[in-house]
Amino acid sequence: MRHSLANGRPHGHMEYPRPAEPSRLLDARRHQTARCSTVEDMQSHSTPRLLQAAGVVFAIGLAAIVALFVTPLVTDGDTAPTFVYLLTMCAPVGFILGIAFALRSGRRAR
Questions:
Q1: Cα–Cα distance between 67 and 108 in angstroms, integer?
Q2: Quick one: which of 95, 75, 93, 96 has its CA closest to 67?
Q3: What is the residue range of 61's domain?
Q4: What DSSP letter does each residue of 27-42 carry, written as one string?
Q5: How many domains is the chain partitioned into structurally?
Q6: What does the angle CA 49 – CA 54 – CA 57 come to, to the nearest 5 degrees?
Q7: How distant, in Å, are the alpha carbons of 8, 9, 22, 25, 108 from that of 19?
Q8: Are 97 and 54 within 8 A, CB to CB?
Q9: Tens place of pLDDT for every residue, the chain, 110 residues?
Q10: Is 35 inside a domain boundary?
């Protein structure tokens, strides 16, 4: 059986893209990490400020919620001060900030 060769390839031969060479992958990683030369650069690139703010605000809200339930146990039934009730609202605010960060970072990736 004889195959027809066009440009040195059998007829109907599909050419698939070759995988990237390991050296090219390493060069790309080096280039990517070269942008972050100092610890401050790496921290600013790894966690954006909106995400940090969301985490801090959410943690304050969770601490206030825990304090809200622990206060009556520690003070023989007295309720927590008003500012603790107000600080509990930080938990949903932090959650909303986290969602806003996720939506903004998702748009940038596209």
A1: 38
A2: 75
A3: 49-110
A4: HHHHHHHHT--SHHHH
A5: 1
A6: 120
A7: 21, 20, 9, 10, 27
A8: yes
A9: 555 555 566 666 566 666 666 666 556 555 555 555 554 554 445 679 999 999 999 999 999 999 999 999 999 889 999 999 999 999 999 999 999 999 998 876 65
A10: no
Tokens of 2: 């004889």
For residue 16, tell me if it sits in a domain: no
Q: Please report whether residue 58 resides in a domain.
A: yes
State the Cα torsion 60-65-70-72 to the nearest 10°: 120
Residue 89 resides in a domain: yes
Q: Which amino acid is at 77?
A: G
Which residues lie below 8 Å from residue 36, measured CB to CB, with a gap of 6+? 42, 45
